[in-house]
Amino acid sequence: MTENNQEPQVDETGENLATESNDPSIRIAELEAELAEAQASVLYVKADGENIRRRALDDIEKARKFALEKFSNELLAVKDSLDAALLIEATDAQSYKDGVQITANQLSSVFDKFNIAEVNPVGEKFDPNKHQAISMLDSDQEPNTVITVLQKGYTLNERVLRPALVMVSKAK
Fold it and tell me: In which element (H, E) is residue 136 found?
């Protein structure tokens, strides 16, 4: 018993719950409140991080899905030109040739706009990173020089999309 004839208050562990400022139970309550606040803060940060991750994944998926949208829109003009050429009833070969030339110019313009470059390596040294040799021929040129291009290659931002199919000179 205390001097005031009151029994001290105790918690479930049997510790005294006195109201003094140095009382450990008050300190425990304060620490529990801080812990609850820290736990709530951790949950908030965790949820916020999960939302950021989910938004980033959505952005990546949209970028992948619509990456070719601008390029595709530019190609539609080329397609329209080809369709228009097929509707022409005149059988003049020159008009067809002119239409094909206009369409080829449109396609070249699209390629330029999107950094697609043509690889036409006639006279260059054979480079296996940019060329695919189909055969080797006897030639007066230096060995391993491209002498004929069977199919042009293309690069996108200096990265090979398709290697050029070539014939290469061989040593005599």
Answer: strand 131-138
How many structural domains are present in the chain?
3
133: left (phi over 0), alpha (psi -120 to 50) or beta: beta
Asked if residues 85 and 96 have their Cβ atoms less than 8 Å apart, the reply is yes
- 143-169 confidence digits (pLDDT tens): 999 999 999 999 999 999 999 999 999
* Containing structural domain, residue 107: 68-114
Task: Judge whether residue 68 has pLDDT over 90.
Answer: no
pTM: 0.61
How much is the CA Rg of the chain, to the nearest whole Å? 39
Q: Is residue 123 part of a domain?
A: yes
CATH number assigned to the domain comprising residue 140: 2.30.22.10
Of 48, 66, 84, the position where a domain reaches its end is: 66
